[in-house]
Write a structure and sequence with these properties.
Blueprint lengths: L2 H13 L12 E2 L4 E6 L2 E8 L2 E5 L12 E4 L2 E4 L16 E4 L2 E7 L8 E5 L3 E5 L2 E4 L2 E4 L8 H15 L6 E4 L4 E2 L8 E5 L19
Parallel strand pairs: 10-13, 12-15
Antiparallel strand pairs: 1-2, 2-3, 3-4, 5-6, 7-8, 8-9, 9-10, 11-12, 13-14
């Protein structure tokens, strides 16, 4: 088992206990055709329109046959995600249609080397893991979970500028649930989210990621 998946599956629930850093939405059906499944600290999102449902996981973008290596805390790591035959990759700025659902690809590199977001029907942003959001607004994701924090912050500026003045009113994050306060979404993107003993990042988050 690759290290990142071993950490996520075996160690993370112990490391994260009591930290109140991550606050995904509960499994359920939400507004504007949005629904999700909560698995521990993360959400898998769905969008339904006119009887058509798509699943969104704005995470790794890895080209088949190419392994992109990075380094964290001096340890060389290899991105474990691979595409099987038959999958189609997407590119920054690409716009395509899935049975009447418009999908725009927007690259936000930093959390991972090929992280992308998706803007659906010009009104919903599925941001993946580039943002951590609490009541004071959005921050660059915690540095421990970000491959290149400086690059992530630069990418968030680009994302902020893309969203400004658009019809996007709902944001579905990877670890901070659904957010609708667009005025605060990019309030602190020059900073990385931090959680300290006695001062958790999100005091409303559950103590255990399993809850």
């Amino acid at each position: 088992m690759k290290f990142m998946y071993f950490f996520d599956c075996k160690l993370k629930r112990f490391v994260m206990y009591g930290k109140r850093m991550l606050h995904p939405s509960k499994t359920g059906v939400y507004q504007n055709g949005i629904s999700c499944i909560k698995e521990d600290d993360v959400n898998l999102w769905f969008y339904t329109k006119n009887g058509v449902t798509i699943a969104i996981d704005a995470g790794h973008l890895v080209f088949k046959g190419i392994e992109k290596e990075f380094e964290k805390m001096g340890i060389p790591l290899m991105n474990p995600a691979r595409l099987r035959d038959g999958y189609k990759t997407v590119s920054d700025g690409e716009v395509f249609n899935i049975d009447g659902i418009k999908v725009e690809v927007f690259e936000v590199m930093g959390h991972t080397v090929g992280h992308v977001c998706y803007i659906i029907d010009d009104k919903i942003l599925f941001s993946g893991d580039c943002l951590a959001v609490n009541e004071s607004g959005g921050y660059s994701l915690f540095e421990f979970f970000t491959q290149n924090p400086a690059l992530n912050k630069k990418s968030l500026i680009r994302l902020r500028d893309r969203i400004a003045g658009s019809g996007v009113k709902v944001v579905c994050t990877g670890h901070s649930g659904i957010r609708t306060d667009m005025s605060k979404l990019f309030a602190h993107i020059d900073q990385s989210a931090v959680s300290r003993p006695g001062k958790p990042f999100d005091p409303t988050a559950p103590k255990s990621i399993r809850k």
